[in-house]
Design brief:
5 helices, three-stranded antiparallel beta sheet, 2 domains, about 170 residues, alpha+beta, elongated, about 30% helix
């Protein structure tokens, strides 16, 4: 089987490629200190959304095949323009890069989970662990979230390189 090179274009125009035998339709990208990076390539939109949900701040983009002209259209030998713009000049067909840049990021909003809420609240330096627990329980009445579990999530995020604000224990 021949390898295909897939390309995903980030919002800043940077291009990320993967050469593989597999078939990919979407890529999950995340913005970091050095620009946009690829979290992974996926073969189905639902898998891409699942991966996006695992990485806060990431986006899903459609990926194309590198060097792919007009996807399955044969190259024509026509010399006459087929369409004209309002001024009578021939319309220019969009390049693959222009089509990718104009593509909309789509997909359903991920379900709000206790974990995603805890991660979001941990980014607010004014909230203590107990306040985070109180807000989680207010939104999810059956939640068994504790101060210790919130601190554990913060520790895991820090280990992954996320800049989570440090909180000091209160002297109560």
């Amino acid at each position: 089987m021949t390898k295909t090179t897939y390309v995903a274009t980030a919002p800043d125009g940077s291009r990320h490629t993967r050469k593989t035998d597999r078939t990919y339709t979407h890529a999950v990208l995340v913005e970091g200190k050095e620009g946009w990076g690829v979290v992974g390539f996926c073969g189905r939109p639902d898998l891409a959304e699942k991966k996006r949900g695992e990485h806060p701040g990431s986006i899903v983009v459609e990926c194309g095949v590198l060097g792919d002209r007009a996807a399955d259209m044969p190259e024509t030998a026509d010399t006459e323009p087929t369409a004209t713009a309002a001024g009578g000049a021939p319309e220019r067909e969009q390049t693959v890069d222009e089509k990718i840049a104009a593509a909309k990021v789509h997909g359903p909003e991920p379900r709000r989970t206790i974990g995603s809420l805890v991660q979001e609240l941990l980014m607010d330096p004014d909230l203590g662990y107990q306040e985070i627990v109180d807000r989680v329980v207010a939104e999810f009445p059956g939640a068994k979230t504790s101060v210790r579990s919130v601190a554990s999530v913060a520790a895991v995020l820090r280990k992954k390189g996320v800049d989570v604000p440090i909180r000091r224990k209160s002297k109560d």
